[in-house]
Write a sequence for this structure.
């Protein structure tokens, strides 16, 4: 058998085509380092199955290459968050405002939702509705007559629940209500103050007995009263039997106020 030796120098350029090369003849031993470049790879030629496990690590990532679409649910855990996410944040530098946003786990079910700080008031209640009013000018109290005192100067009224001497909060709960008066002059007899609910239910009746010295008399009443949250209301009443009409003194000598209690 005659062996014909063909040297590479005797092969014309491009004489050996793909059709002349048997399948699987060219293996890795015929490749030199860096011989196969990306230009020689057709689109999608390198599939996931061709990539060894752990072949791609952080040095192959480019900035911005990992987006939220490629992070599985629950992938970012508390342990992956730096402490400085909270401690390093800039302080708000002001009082919490209604429009400030917070993150909450809705129903402790793992669903994060935002909430405005204003919604906290539905859970962390305050002492409102609340009001305070005083008498602007004197008011005559007829002898031996139950008389409603009209404190006509509002100091504050958080829910616009006080008008014409009547407090109607429209919010269910127990309220601390207080009120009192001082007469401009007095002689022997009784001075009585009380808080009347819904026009017929009297609370905290406080009596003060005068003597013949003519000194002024005062009476103060304080009560915890439940409200039904709809039409319950309270008013301040007084009584005196000195024998003639007397005036209650103005400003804070005659007052009416109250607020909703928390946790009762």
């Amino acid at each position: 058998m005659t062996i014909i030796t063909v040297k590479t120098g005797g092969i014309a350029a491009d004489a050996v085509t793909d059709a002349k090369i048997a399948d699987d003849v060219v293996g890795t031993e015929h490749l030199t380092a860096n011989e196969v470049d990306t230009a020689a790879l057709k689109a999608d030629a390198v599939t996931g199955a061709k990539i060894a496990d752990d072949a791609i690590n952080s040095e192959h990532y480019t900035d911005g290459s990992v987006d939220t679409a490629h992070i599985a649910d629950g992938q970012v855990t508390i342990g992956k968050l730096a402490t400085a996410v909270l401690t390093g944040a800039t302080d708000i530098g002001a009082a919490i405002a209604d429009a400030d946003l917070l993150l909450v786990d809705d129903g402790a079910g793992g669903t994060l939702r935002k909430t405005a700080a204003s919604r906290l008031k539905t859970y962390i209640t305050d002492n409102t509705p609340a009001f305070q009013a005083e008498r602007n000018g004197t008011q005559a109290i007829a002898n031996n007559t139950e008389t409603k005192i009209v404190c006509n100067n509002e100091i504050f009224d958080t829910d616009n629940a006080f008008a014409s001497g009547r407090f109607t909060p429209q919010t269910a709960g127990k309220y601390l209500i207080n009120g009192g008066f001082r007469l401009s002059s007095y002689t022997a007899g009784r001075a009585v103050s009380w808080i009347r609910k819904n026009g017929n239910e009297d609370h905290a009746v406080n009596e003060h007995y005068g003597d013949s010295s003519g000194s002024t008399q005062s009476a103060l009443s304080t009560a915890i009263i439940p409200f039904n949250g709809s039409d319950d209301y309270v008013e301040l009443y007084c009584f005196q039997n000195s024998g003639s009409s007397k005036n209650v003194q103005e400003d804070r000598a005659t007052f009416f106020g109250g607020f909703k209690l928390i946790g009762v």
About this structure: The helical segments are 84-87. Residues 54 and 163 are 76 Å apart (CA to CA).
